[in-house]
Amino acid sequence: MKKRILFVDDERDLLNGLRRALRGQRKEWEMTFVGSGKEALELAESNPFDAIVTDMRMPGMDGAQLLEELVHLQPDIVRIVLSGQSDKEMVMKSVLPAHQYLNKPCDIDHLKNAIIRAFALRELIHDDKLVALISGMESLPSLPSLYLKLVGMLQDSDVTVRAVGEMLAKDLAMTSKVLQLVNSAFFGLGRRITNPVDAASLLGMNVIKGLVLSIGIFSQCDQSKLQSQGFSVDRLWAHSSKVASIAKRIAVAEHAEKSVVEDSMLAGFLHDIGKLILALNLPEILQQLQMASQDGGLAGLHHAEEMALGTTHGGVGAYLLGLWGLPEGVVSAVAFHHDPGALPDAEFSALTAVHVADVLANDDASDGYDFDHDYLQRLGIEDRIEAWRQLALE
């Protein structure tokens, strides 16, 4: 079926330009062009759309208000802002409801690729309710101890922006959200950032304070609820940090490019973020999956996820991170870290580093979880396993 996309802008010339530029997509997309937020909302109330691309500043209902309404009305819709507005207040309003923010004038291929990529990632999830659940998430809750420390730091006039960045880097939720923002056109930085410490420095203290204290992009995680389901955020963080460290060491040892080294570390840290999403939103199902996998270990868990959800925690995490516009190498590594052979890659990548690091980090309790030897043979690097094992032990 054709994907249905809604374009909203009060500038008729711009809408006509988009209509002409995207004419070649008519075989795949059914496109609707409207001139106001009110008109768009009325259409959405009776018509399901797969994606919306909207301007921010419009008379009557602005883009941020429109997206907030759509989060509740059609939570599964891909929400993209296409705007020339640099007004800080207006940009801040769209931080939570928008998945991605693109600047006008926008290269038409860049816009097409953003939409196509979001649709491709959706194929990882075969359950419509799960798609809606993930798409509707505006943020992820953080560890209470880290959240409270961050709030306290931001109220201290002597704290440095680097110290704030280092605090952000300790939390899965904070890291993923701040990198979503810094890598989008929200703040027009024009650089590819994979380190939350660098992200904090570039955003600056005033912006971070506004995002955390006023906008509320972070919230506290109810750990007691998760612990009652047998899920530990602390254990997840410890494992994720270990995988990130090993993945970075492996990438450096393989003389990978700097961008691959950075992606390897970030993807290692975020590779199991899908587990956090499931634990927060579907705790009963997560508990059932864990029970079903007790005999089969990690390999059993992945099989149980496929049977119950039609996807894995890797696919769940990758879909959210992809919607948020994180680097493609990171998203691929998160999506396929248990099954790297599913991609036709023929060279070492962040996916390679994270897959190997995850196996090595689980070496004592793998229960059938092993390297994808066919994949490593295809890349011609299977003989490096023992060297990587030594790196992990160090």
Mind explaining what this structure looks like?
- With 394 residues, the chain is α/β, with parallel strands linked by helices.
- It folds into three domains: 3-122, Rossmann fold, CATH 3.40.50; 144-215, no CATH class; 223-393, Hypothetical protein af1432, CATH 1.10.3210.
- Helices cover 58% and strands 7% of the residues.
- It contains 22 helices and five strands.
- The protein has helices at 12-21, 37-46, 63-73, 88-93, 108-122, 128-135, 144-154, 161-168, 172-183, 196-203, 205-215, 223-228, 233-253, 258-270, 273-281, 283-292, 297-309, 313-323, 328-336, 350-361, 373-379, 385-393, and strands spanning 3-8, 29-34, 51-54, 78-83, 100-103.
- Strands 2-1-3-4-5 form a five-stranded parallel sheet.
- Strand 4 (78-83), helix 4 and strand 5 form a beta-alpha-beta unit.
- The longest helix has 21 residues, at 233-253.
- It is globular, with a radius of gyration of 21 Å.
- The relative contact order is 0.09.
- The mean pLDDT is 88.
